[in-house]
Design brief:
The complex is a heterodimer of chains A (about 475) and B (about 220). By secondary structure, chain A is an alpha/beta fold. Among the domains of chain A are: about 70 residues, Ubiquitin-like (UB roll); about 140 residues, Nucleotidyltransferase, domain 5, CATH 3.30.420. In chain A, about 30% of the residues lie in helices and about 25% in strands. In chain A, helix 6 crosses helix 11 and helix 8 packs across helix 13. Chain A starts with a strand and ends with a helix. The mean pLDDT of chain A is about 90. Chain B has about 220 residues and is an alpha/beta fold. Chain B is built from nine helices and five strands, in the order ααααβαβαβαβαβα. In chain B, helix 3 runs antiparallel to helix 4. Chain B is elongated and about 55 Å long. The model of chain B has no long low-confidence stretch (mean pLDDT about 95). Classes of the chains: A alpha/beta (about 475), B alpha/beta (about 220).
Chain lengths: ~475, ~220
């Protein structure tokens, strides 16, 4: 056995010889970023050992070792979470006339938990937190992979329910109810998160033909979640277009809007729905983790010290802001989009994505720069989103000009600017003036499903009618993708 | 510089400049003026693609430019190919390329195919969602020297290891070089599963393939 000593945390643990620093950290609940789940590719689990920076996932402990976690690791715990989203008027038709209901938006990274009074329809208590599963495997695919190994499915399941039970204890105490008063619950989230939340093996989602092992639009026993009723799982469209999008369709009224509307949730997977004359087309596109600041040289999530806004003034100087106004330590997705969008607008980055003067990087501060490779990573991510949009327009045989309304959902989208998205050509120019940011519609739509049970049946019907497009099956996909990479 | 060398240089430049009309025109000149088609491909087109690969690795070119360079190369190749002398054919090293079982993302694989073809390999593309045994069976059938395996997804990367395990089980490991690549793959992963090499992009893949076969690698 050897000792792993996490100096900053003041935690020591004895582990078998050859254990990696990452494994040791998990055993004693020291939080390390591991978006790639220890494959050694993302570089985000860097720690300092003997004044040398090493990857925690690749470094095996052979002697007693003092490990210093880095500042970025700690700061990622202070993530910004968006809890509210656009909603609409609906009648109160809860499953029970009295008592409380629970809505949980289960994001891959974050959770938003709310207790709602079923009699009044008021949200009386709410809390946002990191999804505890993210410390085991950050992105969706890594989590699917992990869930298939040994008893990890249970680990992930109990990590979530334990965290939710803790939150429920606090929230119930806050409004003076007992857990038995929580008679109904809705889980909203992507397809993988719903599998994990009900202890269902998601392995089949991670390989072609990407078939869910679970059907949505059903009730599930609460099992280890301490509430006095069952959990409703909203219907979902496919492995990659989940219940969070179903909630979004509901909250945005996509199934009955007269306007031709494009709804996009921008993230690691860009999920989108095109609504036209009451008919819906949906797709998802593998944007990769660049929007979350991963695989970006100085990328970080949207937490303290991240550059989140950037703008050039007319005189060629620029201004930026950081989260919590802290000294800049890195750049998050919205900052990256803003900065590259602005650099394109003023011509410092050319149409092909190359720095016009062939420089290697652009410094925002002395410590934080955008590199040529960062631009390439962003091009791939935004190109994937644009390809999804173009594919859906093509499926309905319409042009970008025909889109009357564009709604960007999700907490990442909420921090974006229309102008950046247009400058980057992530969105077609003709979307100018039509874009609105609708926030966490996974949560607001989930709340609607809690408070009006008619909407559950209605959405089950809507989801059945959605035409899902699988982009990789499209012969033109590669050509469209390559054409969408430029600025 | 001889007239032939001038044409080779012009072909190489035209590929690099993504000018497909010009490469076609130059290829026709090569034939009209009685020069060797194979030499024009090797010293002109392949050279241009190699230079494009270098620019790609330097961050100067990106995927769209690489594809346009390849388009320019293929236009000239269509003109030159019918004129390659028989004795010059079939000297290319052969490789199998495919995306692992369970994965349908193939843009990365297609890029590697384009670049390695341009680099002088004969590439047999066996598509996507390919079962581990099929990689091996096809490699034997096609008399390939390299098996190139690609995946974009963390969830399917273990199937790369399976190909190598099966090669070992079937006693064929030393018959083939195995190259891996794709979004979630790293050199560390390639080492762990016992692959012969990993390349992080399509341009690097050409150099890797050449060095694995002990061919001369230009810098």
């Amino acid at each position: 056995m050897v000792k792993a000593i996490f100096v900053n945390e003041g935690i020591e643990i004895e582990v078998p010889l050859g254990t990696t620093i990452m494994e040791a950290a998990r055993l004693c609940e020291v939080y390390l970023e591991s978006p790639c789940n220890g494959t050694g590719t993302c570089g985000k689990c860097e720690v300092s050992v003997n004044d040398e920076i090493v990857l925690a996932c690749e470094t095996e402990l052979l002697i007693d070792t003092e490990i210093h976690t880095l500042m970025n690791q700690a700061q990622n715990r202070s993530l910004q979470i968006l809890s509210s989203g656009r909603s609409f008027q609906y009648d109160l038709k809860p499953m029970f006339d009295s008592g409380y209901g629970l809505v949980v938006d289960i994001g891959t990274t974050t959770l938003v938990v709310s207790l709602v009074n079923l009699t009044t329809g008021e949200e009386e208590a709410s809390e946002s937190l990191l999804n505890p599963q993210a410390q085991y495997a950050q992105d969706v695919l890594s989590r699917i992979q992990l869930a298939g190994e040994g008893d990890s499915l249970d680990t992930l399941y109990f990590a979530l329910t334990d965290a939710l039970n803790d939150v429920l204890m606090r929230l119930s105490a806050e409004i003076g109810i007992s857990n038995d008063d929580i008679k109904d619950a809705v889980y909203s989230g992507n397809t993988t998160m719903l599998h994990l939340a009900v202890r269902k093996d998601p392995t089949s989602l991670g390989k072609y033909p990407y078939t869910p092992a679970l059907t949505g639009g059903r009730y599930q026993e609460a099992d280890s979640l301490r509430i006095g009723g069952d959990i409703y799982l909203p219907p979902f469209i496919s492995a990659f277009v989940g219940a969070d999008i179903t909630s979004g369709i509901l909250a945005s009224g996509l199934s009955h809007t007269a306007e031709t509307t494009l709804f996009i949730d921008i993230g690691t997977n860009g999920e989108m729905v095109l609504a036209m004359n009451g008919e819906l087309v949906a797709t998802s596109t593998a944007a990769g983790p660049a929007f979350e600041g991963m695989n970006i040289s100085q990328g970080m999530r949207a937490s303290k010290g991240a550059i989140d806004r950037f703008q050039f003034n007319d005189d060629g100087t620029f201004i930026y802001s950081t989260i919590n106004n802290a000294p800049a330590v890195g750049i998050c997705g919205s900052g990256l989009l803003d900065a590259i969008g602005e650099l394109v607008r003023v011509g410092i980055i050319g149409k092909t994505g190359r720095f016009s003067d062939k420089s290697k990087e652009f410094h925002i501060t002395e410590n934080v720069a955008i590199t040529q490779n960062d631009i390439r990573q962003l091009q791939l991510a935004k190109g994937a989103v644009r390809t999804g949009i173009d594919a859906m327009l093509m499926a309905r045989n319409i042009s970008p000009d025909d889109i009357e309304r564009v709604e960007i959902a999700g907490s990442f989208g909420y921090h974006l600017k229309e102008s950046s998205l247009l400058d980057l050509k992530m969105l077609p120019e003709s979307f100018r003036g039509k874009v609105s940011f609708v926030g966490n519609t996974s949560h607001s739509g989930g709340a609607a499903l809690l408070l009006n049970t008619d909407l559950r049946a209605q959405m089950e019907k809507v989801v059945k009618s959605v035409q899902a497009i699988e982009l990789a099956d499209d012969d033109d996909f590669q050509k469209m993708f390559i054409n969408s990479l430029g600025f | 510089m001889t007239r032939e060398q001038e044409l080779h240089q012009a072909l190489s430049d035209a590929v690099l400049d993504m000018d497909e009309d010009l490469t076609e025109e130059l290829a026709k000149k090569v034939i009209e003026e009685g020069f060797d088609a194979y030499a024009a491909i090797d010293a002109g087109l392949a050279d241009g693609m190699e230079r494009a690969g270098v620019l790609f690795e330097d961050g100067e070119y990106f995927v769209p430019e690489l594809i346009l360079c390849a388009d320019a190369m293929y236009r000239a190749l269509d003109v030159l190919k019918p004129h390659i002398k028989v004795e010059e054919q079939a000297v290319k090293p052969r490789a199998i390329i495919g995306v692992v079982e369970g994965d349908t993302h193939d843009i990365g694989k297609n890029l590697v195919r384009i670049m390695t073809e341009a680099g002088g390999f004969e590439i047999i593309d066996i598509g996507r969602d390919v079962p581990p045994n099929v990689f091996i069976d096809r490699a034997i059938e096609e008399n390939a020297e390299i098996i190139m395996i690609s995946t974009l997804m963390t969830t399917t990367m273990t199937n790369m290891a399976k190909v190598i395990e099966l090669l070992n089980e079937r006693g064929l490991r030393d018959k083939f070089k195995v190259m891996v690549g794709g979004g979630p793959i790293s050199q560390a992963y390639a080492d762990r599963i016992g692959a012969d090499g990993y390349s992080k992009n399509a341009a690097e893949a050409v150099r890797l393939a050449k060095s694995l076969l002990g061919m001369e690698v230009a810098k």
